[in-house]
Design a protein that fits this description.
- By secondary structure, this protein is mainly α.
- It has one domain (about 10-129).
- Helix content is about 65%, strand content about 5%.
- The protein contains five helices and two strands; from the N terminus they run ββααααα.
- It has helices spanning about 20-45, 50-75, 75-80, 95-115, 120-129; strands at about 10-15, 20.
- A two-stranded antiparallel sheet has the order 1-2.
- A hairpin with a 2-residue loop joins strand 1 (about 10-15) and strand 2.
- Helix 1 packs antiparallel against helix 2 (about 50-75).
- The longest helix has 25 residues, at about 50-75.
- The chain is globular.
């Protein structure tokens, strides 16, 4: 009997009411790694490292919301008939493109509000990614 490669269980950790999927864990680790690299690069360039921690505090929730909005927009046929399902993000349905758009816009708005040169944030983010 031939044994093939078994598919990976999409759930990394199941703690009863809390289920952590592999893709969420990987994305979260990617955000933390990006923050670590950005803070290290900021220190190397003499920039305030707290700025990037502050940006992350705004960018992560904005990215999640924008990821959901993006997904809902492209699945509008379903959600227009089921508007109560729009907020049920725990049932799946986010899009990484929306998350990227949301986080970049948040960084841009953050830099304008804090009166940072948005170019320096973007250059540093470019080096991180």
């Amino acid at each position: 009997m031939e044994q093939g490669i078994q598919p990976l269980n999409p759930i990394a950790v199941d703690l009863g009411p809390i289920t952590v999927h592999w893709y969420g864990l990987i994305i979260g680790l990617g955000v933390l790694l990006g923050l670590f690299i950005a803070v290290r690069e900021a220190e190397r360039r003499g920039l305030d490292k707290e700025t990037f921690i502050d940006v992350i505090l705004f960018a992560v929730p904005a990215a999640i919301i924008c990821a959901r909005i993006y997904y809902v927009f492209f699945q509008w046929d379903f959600y227009s008939q089921n508007p109560g399902q729009i907020i049920k993000i725990w049932e799946g349905g986010i899009a990484i493109h929306g998350a990227i758009i949301g986080s970049v816009l948040t960084g841009y708005i953050f830099s304008k509000v804090k009166k940072y040169h948005s170019g320096s944030l973007l250059i540093l983010l470019h080096r991180v990614y």
